[in-house]
Amino acid sequence: MGGQLILVATPIGNLADISERAIETLQSVEAILCEDTRVTAKLLMSRNISTPTRTLHDHNEQDRTPFLIEKLSAGARYAVVSDAGTPLVSDPGYRLVRAAIAAGIPVTAIPGPNAVITALTLSGLPPLPFMFLGFPAPRSEARKTGFATLRAAEQAGVRSTLIWYEAPHRLVETLEDLIEVFGPDREAAVGRELTKRFEEMVRGTLTEVLAHFQTTAPRGEITLLIGPSAEDDSGADDLDTHLRQALESHSVKDAATLVAGIVKLPKRTVYARALELSKEMKN
Fold first, then answer.
1. Cα torsion at 116, 121, 123, 129 (round to 10°)?
2. The Tetrapyrrole methylase domain covers which part of the protein (predicted)?
């Protein structure tokens, strides 16, 4: 059948969630490429799978990819797994998949658990559209800049449930930064230890969710969600109104600088919108 790369979703917590197809695939491939062999070993032992494992993580993926592509081209069948959930979703494997596609090697997937979808369906927040954004920046200043860019997109008319993964020791600070940018009353939810014995889903406003975790230290795997902006959110109109007025008497650069101070958004974000409006006004 020739070489093949297979992306295999594994449980996000409860080992019973692995599918029959995933088990059969992990038993039949030449090797399993995994983020941490120690973590994957627990899953393999629970299903009596003895297939050899090899590491594939952020620090070695670029170096290992040429060798793996050579083996795949020669007929090897490899499975890719992450420590938990669906590979490539905030996990290694993207470089290898891109290289395999470019080399004409068949790539397929065995679907299964994913913390983003699980948390979204349990959150009570609108499921469509949603945007998954990986992990927020670890430092507050960079984190708030990223959040402000998303808020600017909302002010330009984008409405979506937003989802992140977060480390438990940063959750409280991240919630505080979200409140500063999106406001205290935005609907939110935090999923913790999903599918495990102590699964928890905390729902409410950002203020309410923050209060819960200020008194109850978060532990385990965290998925953080906030709902879309309100339908009557006038942010988009406000931003465009301020920019149109400023553009009547200022250059694009000066108008962006002036309005960025008014709406408290990153200058480059406001500048991009000012450039669009300037072109529209000229036409």
1. 70
2. 5-209
Q: Give the span between the Cα atoms of 188 and 183, in whole angstroms.
A: 11
- β-bridge partners, 233: none
β-bridge pairing 77-81 and 4-8:
parallel
In single-letter form, the type of residue at position 131 comes to M
Per-residue pLDDT reduced to its tens digit, 199-217 = 999 999 999 999 999 999 9
Other Cβ atoms less than 10 A from the Cβ of 283: the count is 5
- Its sign, for the CA torsion 113, 117, 121, 122, is positive
The pTM score is 0.82
Question: For tokens 């958004």, what's the residue?
Answer: 265
Express each pLDDT in 166-181 by its tens digit: 999 999 999 999 998 8
Q: How many Å apart are CA 19 and CA 246, to the nearest integer?
A: 58
